[in-house]
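Um, can you check?
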Amino acid sequence: METRRGTKRGSGVRNFKSGLSLWLILWLVVVKPGGVSPCPRLCVCYPTPMTVSCQSQNLTMVPAGVPYDSQRVFLQNNRITELRADSFGFETQVLWLYGNNITWIEAGAFSNLRILEELDLGDNPSLRHLEGGAFRGLEKLQSLHMHRCKLATLPHDIFHKLYSLQFLYLQENQLHFLQDDLFSDLVNLTHLFLHGNRIRALSENVFRGLVNLDRLLLHENRIKQVNRRAFRDLGRLTILYLFNNSLAELPGQAMRDVQDIQFLRLNSNPWSCGCEARPLWEWFRKARISSSEVVCTSPTQRRGQDLRFLRELDFAPCPLPDPGSLTGSTTTTFSTKTRWWFSKHKPASSSKSSFQKTSDNAKTFPFPVGKPQYGPKLAPDTLPVKYELSEAEAALPKLDPEEYWANYGNEDSSIRCFELECPPNYDGAAFPSSSSFSITPSTLRLLAASIAAFSLQLLLS
């Protein structure tokens, strides 16, 4: 009896264990725990947040099997060459593709990534061209990296509808031209990095729409010209870097449009500190900012000086800025102090009393007393030694006599020159002074008669 009972008990235990094992296998296969997703081959996956890391695996294409609900996908430092519309069968918030061999991005390649916030395509030196619509559908994208890709051009609609973009990295490419309205949809952009390119000019509408831009980095380009309205939408800009360019001039109006600027870097440019620099100099007088030095390279007499610290007298001979000029150039309407521009260059030994008038001297002064006599224009090399034109002054727009005298008399004649700096014949008809009246005998007789008549009238009254 005992033997028979033990045999039944052992058989029941074995049946129970086998049934339990089968149940566990079925549970693991059919009812596996939630939250466990497969991971692509050669990748490492981490939960919370779901991260798929496949960097540095010599991948030539985006791997299949990336969990659909991934939040971060790292594919950097591989050998991926193309991105197509069917390359991404998942959603993610962060996608890193830098350091690959990407040569082509199909239009709409990222259209499935509707929740993507950060896309890094930097350091793809073979990505020299982008199709329009390459970033279509990325309306939640906040950060886009395309640095060091050797991009030469950008399609006009490349940033179309990227309304959420805040950071755009385009530095160290080969961009030589920026189209008008290229950034017009980027109304929330705060950081724009364009340094290390080959940009030559900034047009009127190049930054239109960037109403929230905080910092603009344009250093180490080849910029020679800035339109006076190029910064008109950048009212919130606080940081502007323009150093290491080819700028000789920067319109004062362009700087007045960036009223919130705090940090300005203009060093390492070939600044010309002739008349064309006056608008920028005047802006510096009112601005309260942190600025780099602005070292003059021309004219010769100002080489090495800092434009910010020049005196008003240094700009006395300058024409006024032309409000209609888009580049900040000058017109032929002269300021009042222009009449005495030559007084700074007059030899120290000469004065009003010791100056000897000659025919050569008369040619030096463009403001003869009385009716002007129009003669042939003098070339700079024919001027007398009393004044030598600098390179910057010789390059200024030539002034026709009729143009000057058409504006003559509009200046404020109450401003006088200092005695030792006045030109010869200064006390003429145009600006009479007390020394131009002489006392003659007839004048004395007339004065005596007037006094006598006045005295007689007082006695009779």
Remarks:
- The longest strand covers residues 330-334.
- The CA atoms of residues 129 and 151 lie 6 Å apart.
- Residues 20-35, 326-388, 396-438 have pLDDT under 50 and may be disordered.
